[in-house]
Amino acid sequence: MLACLAGSMREADADRRGREDTRAVEGKRRTGFQNHIEGCLTEIATAKAFRWYWHPKIGEISKGDVRDIEVRSQQHAGHNHVVLKNDPDDKPVVSIVPKGGKSSIGKYILRGWIFGHEGKVEEYHQVYLRLIGKSTLKGYLIPASKLRAMSTLRGWRENPARFNQPADAEERETENQ
Questions:
Q1: For the chain, domain boundaries
Q2: pTM, whole model, 2 decimals?
Q3: Which of 17, 67, 94, 155 has minimal Cβ neighbours within 10 Å of its Cβ?
Q4: Cβ proximity of 170 and 149 under 8 Å
Q5: What's phi and psi for 127, nearest 5 deg?
């Protein structure tokens, strides 16, 4: 219920401010409302997994999704993790997928995380999405094997200087109720 309300408020705020929907790709059936609501669901799941408070941040698009981390969801576990060109270089970007490998509400797996700068390298496939409108958004597709273990994210918040090398990915399940 909270995710639905917050996602709807985010979409209304974006529409009021004239912001382009950066997740609505031409030819796809998803709407801004769907994207914002699912975004809220995955942010709540991430916060819940770490027992962190989740703030919906209506109209605050540059302050991190959960605390100071970015959350990226994929519809299937087989999809690569996405780091966007405008993601902060020094902040974590978390990968989360619906449990069972299909779009579902309530149960998610946190696959791993990576710093923004680690994902913005030429070795990863670069993608250009033709968005509804005229602009394009550049991102990088990161294989799940290159993600750090979710268990290390709390340690990063306590001592960021400790993290120099990526760790093996580890899945952590969480459930929204």
A1: 2-175
A2: 0.78
A3: 17
A4: yes
A5: -120, 145
